[in-house]
Amino acid sequence: MFTILPIKGHIDQIDGFNCDGISAGLKPNGNNDLGFIYTNEPCDVQAVFTENRFQAAPLKHYLQYEEGFKTNFVLINSKNANALTGKKGIEDINTIFSSLSFDLVNPIMSSTGVIGNPLPIDKIVKGANSFDLNAKSGENLARAIMTTDAYEKSCMYEVKLEDGSSFKIGAVAKGAGMINPNLATMLCFICTDAAVPLNDMKEALEVNSETTFNAISVDGDTSTNDTVMLLANKKSNTYDKEAFIEAVRLVMHDMAMLMVADGEGAKKAVAFEVRNAASKEEAQKAAKALSNSLLVKTALFGEDPNFGRIASTIGASKVISDEEKLVISYNDVVVYDKGELCFDEEQEAKAAKVLGNDKFKVICDLGVGEYSFTAYGCDLGYEYVKINADYRT
C-alpha cells in the first residue's frame, strides 16, 4: 500500500537538487532564458526523445554518453533550439561545457526555441558562469525554459509507503505549441530522491509516455528537441516499484495536461475518448485522429457541436467502424446514436453548452470491440496563427 500526495513547491524541495534560471540576454525582452538543474552528487538519468528524424544537437550530444552514465548538471536554454546546426551544434555544446568554471560530471544540455540558428556561445557561457549552484528557485527555472508558454509548468508529489518511509518526485516543463503525439515541442525534467533502479527508471518513462505525452496534440506537428528526462539521486533510500511507476504517471499526466491547456491561443482542453474499438491500436489511431484534426479543432473553437466532423474524422482514420454501431457524445449529451440522429434543437443546445466549457470530453463509442484510448487536444483559433506567424521575432 502507498499514498501519493500533491505538495506545493518545485523540484528544489527534493533533497540534493538545486536549480535556478536567469536572463543571459537570449530573449530580447530580458526575461529568463537560461537555467540549470544541479545535483550535489552525480545521479542516474534516463530520457526519451522525439521521433522526428532531425534530432537536435543536444539530443545527439546526450546519446554520445554510454548507457547508464551519471550526471550532476543539466543546462537548459530557451530562444534557440540548436537544431539543424550540424556537427558544429554538438561542438558548440562541448565548447560551452569546457568554458564553465565549475566541476561537471557528464553534463547535459537541453535547448528549445528557433530551429536553424547557432547557439550564442558567449552569452550562454557568461550566463552559466554566473550561476549560484546552491540556488533553489524552481520558479526561476520554470520561467527560463518557456518559449510561447503563457505560464510556468511544474508539479510536486510526496509518496508515502506503508512502513512510514517516503520519497519525493516532481517536474518542471515547457510546451504550448508544435505539439503532436509521439512527444511534443516540449521539455520535461522529472526529479526524484527515490532509490529507483536504472532499469525501472527507463520502464517508468516508456510505460507512461503512451497515455501522457504521446497522447496529446495541439497542432499535429512534432519538433526536433522533444525531451522527457528523469533524474534520480536515491537520497531517500526509499523505493517501491508500483508506487514509483504510478507517481511518474501522475507527474507526466500533470505536465501533459498543462501543455494541452496552454496550447498556443487555446481556450479549451478536450479529451477525445474512443471506446469499444476493435483493437488497442485502432482505439489509439481514432483518438489521435480526432485530437489532430484541424476541422475538429476549429469547430471546438467556434463552440459548434458539429458531430459530422467527428464522424468524418473517425471514418477517414480507416479504423473498423460502422455507422449503425457508432455513438457520439459531448460529455453525456448524445448527438448520434447507432444511425439515429439525436441532433434536434434541444440536443444541439445542450451540446453547445458543453462546448462552452473550458474542459470537456468528446466520446466516440465504435461498438465493434472492447478496447479504449483517450487522446488529449485543444481548440485552434486566430491567436495560434498570430503567434506562429511572428515566432522568430
UniProtKB/TrEMBL annotation:
<dbReference type="GO" id="GO:0004358">
    <property type="term" value="F:L-glutamate N-acetyltransferase activity, acting on acetyl-L-ornithine as donor"/>
</dbReference>
<feature type="binding site">
    <location>
        <position position="388"/>
    </location>
    <ligand>
        <name>substrate</name>
    </ligand>
</feature>
<feature type="binding site">
    <location>
        <position position="393"/>
    </location>
    <ligand>
        <name>substrate</name>
    </ligand>
</feature>
<feature type="binding site">
    <location>
        <position position="174"/>
    </location>
    <ligand>
        <name>substrate</name>
    </ligand>
</feature>
<dbReference type="InterPro" id="IPR002813">
    <property type="entry name" value="Arg_biosynth_ArgJ"/>
</dbReference>
<dbReference type="InterPro" id="IPR042195">
    <property type="entry name" value="ArgJ_beta_C"/>
</dbReference>
<feature type="site" description="Involved in the stabilization of negative charge on the oxyanion by the formation of the oxyanion hole">
    <location>
        <position position="113"/>
    </location>
</feature>
<comment type="similarity">
    <text>Belongs to the ArgJ family.</text>
</comment>
<keyword id="KW-0808">Transferase</keyword>
<comment type="subunit">
    <text>Heterotetramer of two alpha and two beta chains.</text>
</comment>
<comment type="pathway">
    <text>Amino-acid biosynthesis; L-arginine biosynthesis; L-ornithine and N-acetyl-L-glutamate from L-glutamate and N(2)-acetyl-L-ornithine (cyclic): step 1/1.</text>
</comment>
<feature type="binding site">
    <location>
        <position position="264"/>
    </location>
    <ligand>
        <name>substrate</name>
    </ligand>
</feature>
<feature type="binding site">
    <location>
        <position position="147"/>
    </location>
    <ligand>
        <name>substrate</name>
    </ligand>
</feature>
<protein>
    <recommendedName>
        <fullName>Arginine biosynthesis bifunctional protein ArgJ</fullName>
        <ecNumber>2.3.1.35</ecNumber>
        <ecNumber>2.3.1.1</ecNumber>
    </recommendedName>
</protein>
<comment type="function">
    <text>Catalyzes two activities which are involved in the cyclic version of arginine biosynthesis: the synthesis of N-acetylglutamate from glutamate and acetyl-CoA as the acetyl donor, and of ornithine by transacetylation between N(2)-acetylornithine and glutamate.</text>
</comment>
<keyword id="KW-0012">Acyltransferase</keyword>
<keyword id="KW-0963">Cytoplasm</keyword>
<keyword id="KW-0028">Amino-acid biosynthesis</keyword>
<keyword id="KW-0068">Autocatalytic cleavage</keyword>
<feature type="site" description="Cleavage; by autolysis">
    <location>
        <begin position="184"/>
        <end position="185"/>
    </location>
</feature>
<comment type="pathway">
    <text>Amino-acid biosynthesis; L-arginine biosynthesis; N(2)-acetyl-L-ornithine from L-glutamate: step 1/4.</text>
</comment>
<feature type="site" description="Involved in the stabilization of negative charge on the oxyanion by the formation of the oxyanion hole">
    <location>
        <position position="112"/>
    </location>
</feature>
<keyword id="KW-0055">Arginine biosynthesis</keyword>
<dbReference type="Pfam" id="PF01960">
    <property type="entry name" value="ArgJ"/>
</dbReference>
<feature type="active site" description="Nucleophile">
    <location>
        <position position="185"/>
    </location>
</feature>
<keyword id="KW-0511">Multifunctional enzyme</keyword>
<dbReference type="InterPro" id="IPR016117">
    <property type="entry name" value="ArgJ-like_dom_sf"/>
</dbReference>
<feature type="binding site">
    <location>
        <position position="185"/>
    </location>
    <ligand>
        <name>substrate</name>
    </ligand>
</feature>
